[in-house]
From TrEMBL:
Main location per the UniProt record: cytoplasm
Source domain of life: Bacteria
Further remark: This enzyme catalyzes only one turnover and therefore is not strictly catalytic. According to one definition, an enzyme is a biocatalyst that acts repeatedly and over many reaction cycles.
Reactions mediated catalytically: a 6-O-methyl-2'-deoxyguanosine in DNA + L-cysteinyl-[protein] = S-methyl-L-cysteinyl-[protein] + a 2'-deoxyguanosine in DNA; a 4-O-methyl-thymidine in DNA + L-cysteinyl-[protein] = a thymidine in DNA + S-methyl-L-cysteinyl-[protein]
Name the UniProt record assigns to this protein: Methylated-DNA--protein-cysteine methyltransferase
Gene3D superfamilies, sorted: Methylated DNA-protein cysteine methyltransferase domain, Winged helix-like DNA-binding domain superfamily/Winged helix DNA-binding domain
Statement: the UniProt record of this protein carries the keyword Nucleus: no
Segments forming domain Methylguanine DNA methyltransferase ribonuclease-like: 1-71
Amino acid sequence: MRWGVLPSPLGDLTVARTDRGLAGVWFADHRGGHRVGPGDERDDDAFADVRGQLGEYFAGTRTTFDLPLDPPGDAFARRVWDALTRVPHGRTTTYGQIARTLGGIGHAQAVGVANGRNPLSIVVPCHRVVGGDGDLVGYAGGLWRKRFLLDLEQPADERLF
């Protein structure tokens, strides 16, 4: 796996990719830490595509990402992460709503666990998941970053928080 560090308005992001696609986007103080190992190769120049798309996102000109993805995770987690990619830019959903789309409201807690383990912050928009009452809850990058991302995605006259 190759990895690099990219600057962002939210602090440095550690990014990693396999030969199949992007495997991780983590904040410097990401809860759970980064998932690069001592045998992985640092190559900051190998992420021009990721740098460009993140730059467009933070500039407000990109609403979806077009990158091959290869996140490590089990089949259920991958289904949750795929569902997250379908939450429209500027909108939010709840753990229960995602669970319903995956086959049952009883899976809301499992959805929360998978959401919390999403290795592709920002690119797979787990920041768009809020509590059932609409409150900001849990984000591996910290709630201040979640608020920043949700605010970034809202037109000035439609701020959520």
